[in-house]
Structure formats: C-alpha cells, structure tokens
Amino acid sequence: MLKDDVGEILITEEELQARIAELGRAISADYQGKDLLAVCVLRGAVIFLSDLIRRITIPHEMDFMAVSSYGGTRTKSTGVVRILMDLTTNIEGRNVLIVEDIVDSGLTLSYILSNLKTRRPASLRTCTLLDKQECREVDVPLDYVGFVIPDKFVIGYGLDYDEKYRNLPFIGVLKPELYIE
Ligand code: PRP
Predict the structure, then answer these.
(1) How many CB atoms lie within 10 A of CB 39?
(2) Mean pLDDT of 83-104
(3) What is the pTM of this model?
C-alpha cells in the first residue's frame, strides 16, 4: 500500500480542505467583478487547483502550463527551467493567478512570473498550497499561501516522489529510507 511508505502525516485531508475553502473565499472576494484566469502549473498543482476552483464562487477560467527544471536530483530542483507545455490563452489584459502546489527554492515560480510578466497581464498574482519558506533561494511574492511547512520531503495531494504518491489525499512525509537524494 502507498500509505505504508508514509512516515508521518503532516497535513490531514480535513485540514487541507478547510484551508482550501478559506483560500477560495479570499480569492472570490478579491477578484469579485474581475476577469480571473487561474493558471495551474502542472503536474503537481492539478489536485489543488481542482479543489480550489470548486471553492471559488465567482466566474473564472483556467489554463495549464507545464515546466520542468533541468538536471538536479529527484528531490532537489536546479532552477534552470524550461516550458514543456505553454498556455493556450492569451493573457494580455487578464487577471492571472498562478496556482502552485509548493514553493521551495522559489526558482520555478520566479521563472514563471518573469516569463508571464512579459505577456502583459492586467495583474499577476500567486497562490501556493505549501510554502517551504526556509528553503528559499530567490524572493518570490506569494499572495495566497495554504500552509508554511518545514524542510521535509513531502508527498501526496499532487506531490510525487518518482511520479508516485500524487493520489494520496493528505500531505505526508516519505519514510527517509525510501528515497535517495
Ligand atoms: C515542483 C513544484 C514547483 C517546484 C517548486 O514541481 O510543483 O513547480 O517543484 O520548487 P522550487 O521552488 O525549488 O523551484 P516539480 O518540478 O516537482 O514537477 P511536478 O509538479 O510535475 O511534480
């Protein structure tokens, strides 16, 4: 069982859903009367996005982009980012909210922000479920944060190790003996 590989549950399913409902309420209030486009950064954020948008009560659209960092190891990113799949929407003049599952070094989001800024959106904000604050290497503005978490290797609710565990409904910590840096 996948669950048997989890050493500790960091955020339960109930805690996740309660916080996501709060984020949905805040986003709905802030974007009231505005043309919101939620941009999901694949693949990890897809689970968060799908729950978040069902808590957003104003009309909005969504789009997807996929990025990948070059090199590094399976548990650490390098910061050299490339776009694997771009948005299909022209974001010029749109109110864009980037939705991420986790911000760690900040390098991925920093790259996405500077890339999307060049396309002249009306506004550009960020929403991340998890913020591994102590690992930050570059400053990135975070407008909506679900949880600040410690520097542990987290899996579940979209987050993977070697493409596994994304389907766990909670955020857990993988047993250390199961991964190699
Ligand atoms: C994760 C996450 C962010 C990035 C954060 O993606 O979704 O995009 O890492 O790390 P950083 O702040 O150190 O740049 P990952 O590369 O694991 O891809 P995935 O979403 O497809 O799992």
Answers:
(1) 26
(2) 97
(3) 0.94
For the chain, give the mean pLDDT.
Answer: 94
3-state percent breakdown (helix, strand, coil) of the chain, nearest 5: 25, 35, 40
User: DSSP code of 13?
Assistant: H
Under CATH, what is the fold of the domain 13-151? Rossmann fold (3.40.50)
- Our answer to whether residue 151 is catalytic in this structure is no
- Ligand 1 atom closest to 132 (CA): 12
Query: pLDDT tens for residues 105-137?
Result: 999 999 999 999 999 999 999 999 999 999 999
Q: Which amino acid is at 58?
A: I
Selected catalytic residue, list 104, 143, 151, 162 = 104
Q: What is the pLDDT at residue 70?
A: 67
H/E stretch holding 114: helix 107-117
- Which residue ranges make up each domain of the chain? 13-151
